[in-house]
Amino acid sequence: MKLTFHGAAKTVTGSCTLLQIDKLKILIDCGLWQGSEEIESRNWLPFGFPPAKIDYVILTHAHLDHCGLIPRLVREGFAGEILCTEPTRDLARLVLTDSAQLYEEEAAVLSKKERRRGGGPIRPLYEIEDVLHSLDRFSDPIPLNKTIDLAKGIKLQLRDAGHVLGATFVQLRIAEGRKRPKRLIFSGDLGNTDKVLTPDPAEPEPSDVVILESTYGDRANRSMRDSIAELRQALLLTFARGGNVLIPSFALERSQELLAVLFQLYKRKELPGCQIFLDSPLALSVTKVFRRYSEYLKPEEAQALAHSPNAFDFPALRFARSSEESRAINALASHAVIIAGSGMCTGGRILHHLKHQLWRPECSIVFVGYQAEGTLGRKLIEGARTVRIFGEEIAVRAQIWTINGFSAHADQPGLLRWLSHAQKPEQIFLVHGEISSLVTLKHAIEAKLRRTAHIADWKETVEI
Ligand SMILES: [Zn+2]
Predict the structure, then answer these.
(1) I need a labelling partner for 280 at 20 to 30 A (CA). Which of 38, 319, 369, 457 fits?
(2) Could you tell me the distance, in angstroms and rounded to a whole number, from the CA of residue 84 to the centre of ligand 1?
(3) From ligand 1's centre to the CA of 408, what distance in Å?
């Protein structure tokens, strides 16, 4: 039995691990590379395996860095089944359609330029049509915790990863002629504890091999209570200066979690007078999926959503669907909270807002999610004095905040706690982290859990 790390090895995006059991080939995730130009250029490289030979894709969750290359996989011949939970299937449909639209738009602009130079059209990474074909490949959804016979002697269970709605970690039991089946766990992305909407990650069963994400392997998140207090402080200070608060946010989960936090402040009458704009059509659609699958939320939150007001419907909250509605927000000088994507400021409506607010010292930019190397978001949190947006040099005068307690990822204590339930795995492979996180987490596992951990290399194959 072999594992090959085709993505998210020594970096945080492009999750894609190939598991080969005899002739059976299973991909765990098939994600997009995101971040610097060098990293994103990998989206165009040939897959490290023939897509037609893959039998299953097990999709842990609907973030683009886990599902974003599925349409290309299908276009290049994948004809197997995609296995995931019901919310993940619905969210992947939204996220992939949005992604294909962006690629089509980008290719149209580039094609125009290319034609003026006398060249031919530029093909997008994938198109809506590829997404539609991908949707045909999704099998009937797999309920959480239900054991499925994937093939002879191979049992699959998807467990709640507590990361985003419908997100799972993967437990496999592989008999392969052994007396005792080999137990494998792929962590996918593991959630932070104490979130408002989604439950904490489930505990994994004792396992022989663990493939573990390491995004925040080198840090401890602030508590939710401190993070909410810090967000309130950011709002109060910014509004007192006469500015707006911009929150770059992933459409999936961060936006909904933020609304839930702001609603908590509203309920406690601690929300400063303001208008809150969710300026993302994708986040708006995702919010509807949250309502549809409220059984995946914490029970008290699911109940609360049945009544008004609630986290997605309270007086201060406005939704901007059209680009006119989005542009109208720029006319407001103060007392606006603008939540817009993309979460790492690599595109989307947040760029327009940054262009209008970043140079204003009275404004604040509040980062609540992971900012990958090479992204505009990373440059801002690392203290860039000026940045280029739409070809224009913009001074960074707004106050920059980083509140990591709202993160969708487990911190080092959370990862160690989760891993400790796997008891005594013989092999631990660390993926989905930048080098410093991977190395710090490896040492922590060795010191605190007395297990050795291996940092997976890109394209590395290991026997398990
Ligand atoms: Zn994720």
Answers:
(1) 38
(2) 14
(3) 7
